[in-house]
Amino acid sequence: MNRPDAKHQERFNLRGGEVVDVHINPLLARVMRPDQIEGVRFLYNSVTQLRSLMPESAGAILADEMGLGKTLQTIAVVDILLRQCCYFFPKRRSTVEKVLIVCPATLVRNWKLEFKKWLGDECRVLCADENTDIKSVIYGKYEVLVVNYEKVRNHSTLFSSAKFGLLVCDEAHQIKNADSQITQALDSLRIERKILLTGTPIQNNLTEFYTMINFIARGYLGDKAKFRKDFEVPITRGRKPNCPFRHWQMAEERSRLLQKITAPLLLRRTAEAVNRRLPPKHDIVLFCNPSPLQHKIYTALASLELVNFEQLATEPKLTGLERILLLQKLCSAPDLLVDDVHGKGKTGKRIKATIGAACDTVPRVKTRRSQDSGKISALLKLLVGIRRKTDDKVVLVSNFTMTLDIIQEICESMRYPFLRIDGNVKPKTRSGIEHEFNTSASKDCFIMLLSAKAGGQGMNLMGANRLFMLDCDWNPARDHQAMGRIHRTGQKKECFIYRLMLSGTLDEKIFQRQISKMGLSDALMLTQEDSNLAEDFAEEELRDVLRYQNDTPCSTHDILQCPCGGKGILLDDVNRLFQDRTPTEEDEDEQDSLPGFMMASQVTEANINRKVKETRKKLASLFDWTHHNFSKAENAVLTQDEILNYIIERDAQSESTANNGDGDEPFSSSSKPSGAILYVFAKQRRMLYKENLKEDISIEDDDESPKTKALMRKKAEMNDVI
Ligand SMILES: [Zn+2]
């Protein structure tokens, strides 16, 4: 750990203790990863003010993604503070004497178990459950007291008299509201050092973020009104999916600035950032051909005129949001619509009032056939490939239990052994199922069927190394959470995350919105709860979302206007394409543009619609992915996934026997089978490594430093390997 400088000594070492080195307990250091040690250093330096001196209290927010070991890092810091102090006095060796850990009631015992697990009996931890009488224990002999938030709220006077040296708040978004009783009670304890732990620091809005920062460092972000004006308003405005480009740009700029300002107080690492220690992960987005039935129903639903919003108040018709939900279900499988459309209830009536004759396109009974869903057909092909060529296990995630039901039936008929966790499985039995899945061989348990809602809470499914997302959520953070179930510390195998989209449909629109939002959330991990989605859609926007674009294998790639032609080339290659070209006027016009844009603007119409250009910039991060157009047989097989290659190759073969066309015909979805994989976006490990290295190097200003040299060497080695 760092040593105190002169200023620190002047303020904190009035009695002239000897300055000594402070170390992480060897018991813990032995098992910790470098990123965790880094985290301990960050927390220690923050709460002891070794990084920078604070006027009042000192604290930090540890916002690492779930699964990276926030608890272990915290225990290591608590242990240091209880046993050591950088100013040594023979009679008082510790920095603090008592630590208060506040967490949700369900986690109280867990903290005690974790202390026991890592430190054995070295640390005296007292756990106060619901029935504990705080009065009788608060002055007792313990070093760490773990309580739930309610206890602190109800007995704040008692707690403040017990003089704690460090406060740890787990799941700290509990204190997001400055006016809540919990926040006020915690504030009244006047504890000098504070650590906040959370996996998602900004859940709903930036006011909460402000409250959290203000809680650990009062006044750090200035007064609330100014913060609102400078950050909250512009950033929130730029997060709306239909906002003008300049708002989006301003939001990007401000969220980066805010990130920079709060960096000394906040540490956030994603699983991706520590990836170099995990096996590689491949993100693969599969754009699949809809089934003929899906195509028929989608065409009927999408061609309806929009109901005017004012009309809605008087007529019992569907809102735009309800229509979106119907389409989302349809993208999963037509069966999901049967009850809604032909049901006798209120919804059924409203659907009939809105879509009229289009009702007849939806079958009256569930077909339960895999070939009626493009995504399930594609999934099935991949499952067969995985089963045949590997001994990998698989997790299948869906938002809809009925989709899981359909797949479950398929598993039964294919004799694929499976387990299932959905909302009906009690939390108590969940961990047993998790354990069974992770420990059994793939021949005994091949598949885990998981409902997205049940899968969010700390679930570990590391036994699998392939995961399929069957539908995507408007909130990228939620999808991300589900994907994190398999790629986490301890995973030994290379991981493949497949996201299945139905080409040309709402799936693509959601994906595009996720990507344009991710720009912001990367910068400040904004995760928006999209409950007010309907209000966010302007009429024009809604029309766009509901449009069915089945004349192209991938409308997302069309929007990018990428010059790769779907041949699977990487950003580097795109850059090379431009190198010899002299810039044109239009290039200068787009100085901040990204590779690919200039060329595209040259080849396409001279005057591209401004809106399209802007959307393209919002999707710019997709240039880090490779794009493969598999709707043309000659593009087959270029990915890093042997299973996908195997499927694509087989698809291509069966197609070339089916038709002997010259391949230049315009795309037609109806000429392809249900579930044919038309397009693939894949993020490869090569890009990932480069990104990480770039970050590392940029920290170093001095080019001659040994660290930079070592990194350059490492980079060269990696390039060799790949
Ligand atoms: Zn491309």
From TrEMBL:
- UniProt-listed InterPro entries: Helicase_ATP-bd (IPR014001), Helicase_C-like (IPR001650), P-loop_NTPase (IPR027417), SNF2-like_sf (IPR038718), SNF2/RAD54-like_C (IPR049730), SNF2_N (IPR000330), SNF2_RAD54_helicase_repair (IPR050496)
Q: Which GO terms describe its biological process?
A: double-strand break repair via homologous recombination; reciprocal meiotic recombination
Protein name per the record? Uncharacterized protein
Q: Which SMART domains match?
A: DEXDc (SM00487), HELICc (SM00490)
User: What is the species of this protein?
Assistant: Meira miltonrushii
Q: Which PANTHER family match?
A: DNA EXCISION REPAIR PROTEIN ERCC-6-RELATED, SNF2/RAD54 FAMILY MEMBER
In this protein, which residues make up the domain named Helicase ATP-binding? Answer: 51-219
Question: Which Pfam family, giving just one, matches this sequence?
Answer: SNF2-rel_dom
Provide any one GO MF term from the record: ATP binding
A GO CC term assigned to this protein in UniProt: nucleus
Keyword set, alphabetical order: ATP-binding, Hydrolase, Nucleotide-binding
Gene3D superfamilies in the record: P-loop containing nucleotide triphosphate hydrolases, SWI2/SNF2 ATPases, N-terminal domain, Tandem AAA-ATPase domain
| Domain Helicase C-terminal: residue ranges | 378-532
